[in-house]
Structures are given as C-alpha cells and as structure tokens.
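quick one
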Amino acid sequence: MQFKRIALVAVATGALALAASAQSVLKLAEIHPQGYPTELADEQFAKLVNQYTNGKYKIDIFPGGQISGDEKVVIEQVKINAVSIARVSSGALGGFNAQLNVFSLPYLFDSADHMWNFLLGSYGQKMLADLEPSGFVGLCWYDGGARSFYANYPLNAIADLKGKKFRVMPNNLLVKMVEAMGASAVPMAAGQVFSAIQTGVIDGAENNAPSLISFNHYQVAKYYMLDEHLRLPEVLFMNKGAWAKLSKDDQAAFRKAAAETVAFQRKAWDAYVIEATNKIKAEGEIIVEVKDKTPFKNAVKDLVATESPAFADTIKAIDAARPKK
Ligand code: GTR
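structure w/ beta-D-galactopyranuronic acid:
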C-alpha cells in the first residue's frame, strides 16, 4: 500500500516536472519602457500566445532597452536567437532587409490611414513574409506615428535646420534625407541621443511625440517642429529558427495572437500621441505646427526621385493604397 502511494507520488511529480519543462520561454526585446504603446502590444501578444498555445509558450518581455539601447544590436541578437522576438522600427530593420528602406523615403504616405491601407493590404503583408531571407519571420506591423524634428534652439521653418547637427537612426537614406534638408546627419543609437543633445554634440534629433517622452528628450530639446517627414512603421518579428521549432498549430497561434494585437496597438498609439503631446507641452515644449510642408517636400524631391526606382513595385502598391479623396 505504502509502496503504491510512493509510486503514485513519483508519477505525479514526474508529470509536473514534464509539464514545467514542456513550457518554452522566449525572450522579447523592446527599447521603450513599460506602458509605452508598443510595449503594451508586446504584453498583449505574450498574453495571447500563452492563451492560444494553452500555456506551452511564455514570452518574457525585456522593455526599456534592457537588451540594448541600440536597435541594431537588438536585431543582431534576434539574428543569432539570443533573443527570439523583438519590436523595432523599420528604420533600423532596413539595415538588415533592404526592402524596408522604402519607409525611409520622406513623405511617402499622406496620412496614417494611407499607411495602414498599405500595411494591412496584400503587399504590406508580403513585406513581412519577405523578411525570411534575412533570417526573420515578420509577425505584424505597429504604428510609429509621424516623425518630426526637435532641437535645443527654436525651430520654425526648414531654413532653421541649416548647418545644424541632427541625429538619425543608422541608415544611409536617413542621412541623405537630413542632408537634403540642409542639416548634417549624425547616425547614432537611440540610447545615446539624450546625452548627445545635453552635451551639445548634436543640436537635435527627429522622432514622434511619444518617443520624446520615453527617451526624455523633451528635457533637453525644447523646440519641436511638426514637419512630419517620415512615417516609419514598427515591426514585431521573430528569429526564423525559433519559428521553425514551433508546431504548425503553435505557429498559427502566434500568427493569430500577433494579428490581434494590431488594432490594440493602434488604439493605444492614438491615445498616447495626444497624452504625450499634452505632457511635453505642459513641460514647456514649444510645438510649432507646419501648415505648409511644400518647402520640406521640395527639399527632398531630388533624393526621392533618385532613390525611388529601387522600390518601384512597392511604391506602386503604396500609391494604389492612397485613400480616395
Ligand atoms: C522610435 C521607435 C524606436 C526607435 C527610435 C529611434 O520612434 O519606436 O523603435 O527606433 O524611434 O529613433 O531610434
């Protein structure tokens, strides 16, 4: 009798151990802190994956640049599967998958609606699938809003950029864009920008309002000029080898989870852009609306004409996704 009980306990303990080892833990890297719209979407993704795989997969999120404050390093970590999943800007991922550089062409999209028509259409989804030759599986797009210039001196018009130094993400097209607008471009990791502005190594940078808060840049760059030169979508993606290890059912579960976070992130994004804009205003940020963007568009016209042929098919699909007026 006693023996039987011991045997039962042993079997039960074994089963528990097996269940524990059957749960796989995957790391997800996020440069923004907890509560930021993309981070909230990462959390939602982790929750849904856990639910849809019946607890088989647990995703551990490393927010706030814990893996690295440099998205290039984060992407390299995903490439070698030291981290299996990450959420980064397409501006950074373009260094690993050239087709994404199309998004680094200024004034490509007319609006967020235009961008989303394209991203959720067949061509936008194909671009996620086309991450595969780079060693990645694209899971979904997130909103990154519109990027504009900010600086530690007053910005009112394009002429104010002349001769000044602005940080860009390490990406050649972004360097050329800033130069076409009359400034010098300084490529650097996001994590270095705060102190570079503070110490005067650069005069400013360019980003969306939420990032001015998440990186605290509003504290050192009080002038923000809403020229909205770029809409760089954010990407949630995974290491290809880690993906191949998932069963077909689990892959479907990951895809379903990712797809369901898109609307969630967009809603969180829209709300946070308003909150972030109000917050930086309250902190003394001088925000200048740019009523007429023609001088900015004219400045990059030649650059766009030179670089566009490399993305001809994509640009055709982007034009076709323009909402009817
Ligand atoms: C933000 C983006 C980050 C990062 C950053 C940057 O808008 O969400 O992923 O790429 O810009 O400028 O480096």
